[in-house]
């Protein structure tokens, strides 16, 4: 976040149908202390609500929104010392509500379902910038951060038959989080024009809440709360790197990173060398190459099946080691008169990855989460292309990535390789802006991506009879041929906007007209199993936003 203005008060913002934002800055004490504050909130869900209800005859309501707040204070102590205090808070929420009914024999069942997930971050930081001398600079930073994840579902059913109506309600909630206290010291040393050294150290105290599950039901005595114990761990690191001008054409970066992790009495250590080089072939062409090793002590766990997306962060433990990766990349850049073309190919191997075992989910809290996961390896490689036009009345870029990401675990998918959930074979982005007058422009953005991989059952049969709450029922047993054997529909969307502005004595005004999702593509947010009117199971896609027109008014002062 930029620093607040030390001389005068300034502000800018916009008010629109889809989102609003505002930023104000100015001096607290002129030439000594300044502040900057900003806030943003989207309400695309409110605007989309009537459109979704109309398209589904009132049976569905899906939405997503986020807000964030930023604040920063900058204080000049003297010519060699500055203090910065910054705070960030933000939340995202996605939800789906729908109702339906089905008829089975002489009974009619009406049901209302609600699913949602909410995640958010809070970060505060105090930084001291110190100029030790003309060649040596330092930054000391102390931070506190918090991440929360909350997943919930509510279900109500009304069963009508033989002149009587029975109402049952069920609710589930899963929440997890991470809290961090950290301190770091970073230094920059410039002994001469051919060397730029960076070195430092940091330590982070983690407190993980791997997950708490709460369930309530109006049927029987089934209220339940389960949860894993909190985990405390310490992460620490030391690093050094040097930007070297070897010749006027050849530059290199050499670095060495050491990191460690202490958890449950177990210590993990990792030494990570890194090297990168760039060679200037001529004034318009350069080539580059890099080799990097990395270690990460926090794992990302994703659900492989249907339902709302759940990305959970869990730590390395005495039983679950850290994940490590090695990546090599080569690329180049070519500048033309008004265009720039860049290309990069990469190859990445990963070890120590974790994934839910077959049949396990984050909701199986009657057992430790460490017993529900398997460790394995991963492979990712691809080619990235980018063509940019930065000058002229028409500017923009087109980017294309061809990639493949796979995973392999001995205890999953019969030990065979399978596509990662976020494997995206093709990814395209196109952005164009045309400024035909000094105060008017038109922009177009189009994005395309291969759909996420998901696991779907290929066979289903009735299991043995189960007695529960005075009755009996036969659960469905589902068979999965392989992990991530199905692809969601590809994601693509076109947005257009037209802007014009006027400059006044007090500042600037700007108006923007736009259309989000011009051709009304119903992109998948998630897939789930539902029922049709005849109580037959079916796979159903849930989408967030249809075509939405927008208008905003912006200002600067």
What does this structure look like?
The chain has 557 residues and is mainly beta. It has a domain at 1-137. Helix content is 2%, strand content 72%. The chain has one helix spanning 44-55; strands spanning 10-16, 19-29, 33-42, 60-78, 81-104, 107-131, 136-161, 164-192, 195-217, 224-227, 231-245, 250-263, 266-282, 285-296, 298-302, 311-315, 323-335, 339-356, 373-389, 394-409, 418-419, 426-437, 440-449, 453-454, 459-462, 466-468, 471-473, 476-479, 486-487, 491-504, 507-516, 524-531, 537-543, 548-556. The protein has a 22-stranded antiparallel barrel. Strand 19 (373-389) and strand 20 form a beta hairpin. The longest helix has 12 residues, at 44-55. InterPro entries: Beta-barrel_TonB, Beta-barrel_TonB_sf, TonB-dep_rcpt-like. Residues 58-518 form the TonB-dependent receptor-like beta-barrel domain. One of its GO terms (biological process) is siderophore transmembrane transport.
Number of DSSP strand runs: 34
Kindly estimate the percentage of residues that lie in beta strands according to DSSP. over 45%
The parts where pLDDT drops under 50 for at least 5 residues are none
Give the overall silhouette.
globular
Radius of gyration: 27 Å
Going by helix content, strand content and strand pairing, the class is mainly beta
Mean pLDDT equals 88
Tell me the major beta sheet.
22 strands, antiparallel, barrel
Helix content: under 10%
End-to-end C-alpha gap = 19 Å
Q: Helical region count?
A: 1
Protein name: TonB-dependent receptor
GO molecular function: siderophore uptake transmembrane transporter activity
Organism: Cyclobacterium qasimii M12-11B
InterPro entries: Beta-barrel_TonB, Beta-barrel_TonB_sf, TonB-dep_rcpt-like
């Amino acid at each position: 976040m930029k620093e607040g203005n030390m001389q005068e008060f300034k502000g800018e913002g916009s008010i629109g149908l889809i989102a609003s934002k505002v930023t104000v800055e100015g001096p607290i004490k002129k030439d000594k202390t300044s502040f900057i504050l900003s806030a943003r909130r989207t309400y695309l869900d409110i605007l989309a609500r009537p459109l979704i209800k109309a398209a589904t005859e009132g049976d569905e309501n899906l939405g997503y929104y986020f807000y964030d707040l930023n604040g920063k204070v900058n204080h000049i102590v003297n010519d060699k010392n500055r203090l910065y205090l910054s705070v960030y808070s933000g939340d995202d929420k996605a939800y789906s509500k729908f109702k339906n009914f089905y008829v089975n024999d002489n009974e009619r069942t009406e049901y209302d379902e609600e699913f949602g997930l909410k995640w958010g971050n809070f970060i505060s930081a105090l930084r001291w910038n110190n100029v030790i001398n003309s060649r040596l600079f330092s930054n000391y930073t102390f931070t506190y951060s918090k991440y929360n994840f909350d997943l919930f579902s509510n279900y109500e059913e009304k069963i009508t038959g033989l002149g009587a109506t029975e109402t049952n309600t069920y609710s589930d909630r899963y929440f997890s989080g991470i809290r961090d206290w950290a301190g770091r010291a970073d230094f920059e040393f410039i002994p001469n024009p051919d060397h730029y050294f960076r070195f430092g150290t940091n330590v982070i105290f983690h407190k993980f809440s791997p997950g708490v599950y709460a369930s309530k039901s109006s049927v029987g005595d089934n209220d339940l709360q389960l949860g894993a114990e909190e985990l405390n761990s310490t992460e620490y690191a030391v690093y050094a790197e040097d930007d070297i001008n070897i010749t006027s054409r050849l530059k290199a970066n050499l670095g060495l990173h050491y990191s460690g992790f202490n958890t449950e009495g177990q210590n993990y250590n990792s030494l990570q060398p890194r090297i990168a080089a760039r060679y200037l072939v001529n004034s318009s062409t350069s080539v580059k190459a890099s080799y990097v090793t990395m270690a990460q002590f926090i794992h990302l766990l994703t659900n492989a099946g249907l339902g709302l997306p759940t990305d959970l962060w869990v730590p390395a433990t005495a039983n679950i080691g850290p994940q490590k990766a090695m990546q090599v990349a080569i690329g180049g850049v070519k500048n033309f008169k008004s265009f720039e073309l860049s290309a990069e190919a990469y190859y990445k191997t990963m070890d120590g990855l974790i994934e839910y075992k077959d049949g396990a989910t984050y909701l199986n809290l009657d057992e430790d989460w460490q017993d529900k996961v398997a460790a394995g390896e991963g492979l990712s490689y691809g080619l990235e292309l980018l063509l940019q036009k930065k000058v002229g009345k028409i500017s923009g870029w087109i980017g294309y990535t061809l990639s493949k990401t796979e995973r392999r675990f001995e205890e999953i998918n019969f030990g065979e390789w399978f596509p990662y959930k976020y494997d995206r074979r093709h990814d395209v982005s196109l952005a164009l802006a045309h400024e035909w007058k000094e105060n008017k422009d038109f922009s177009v953005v189009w994005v395309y991506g291969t759909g996420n991989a998901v696991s779907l059952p290929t066979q289903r049969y009735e299991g043995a009879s189960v007695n529960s709450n005075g009755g009996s029922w036969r659960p469905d047993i589902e068979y999965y041929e392989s992990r991530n054997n199905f692809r969601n529909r590809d994601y693509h969307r076109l947005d257009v906007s037209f802007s014009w502005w006027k400059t006044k004595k007090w500042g600037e005004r700007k108006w923007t007209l736009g259309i989000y999702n011009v051709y009304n593509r119903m992109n998948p947010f998630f897939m789930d199993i539902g029922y049709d009117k005849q109580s037959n199971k079916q796979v159903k896609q849930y989408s967030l936003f249809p075509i939405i027109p927008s208008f905003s008014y912006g200002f600067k002062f």
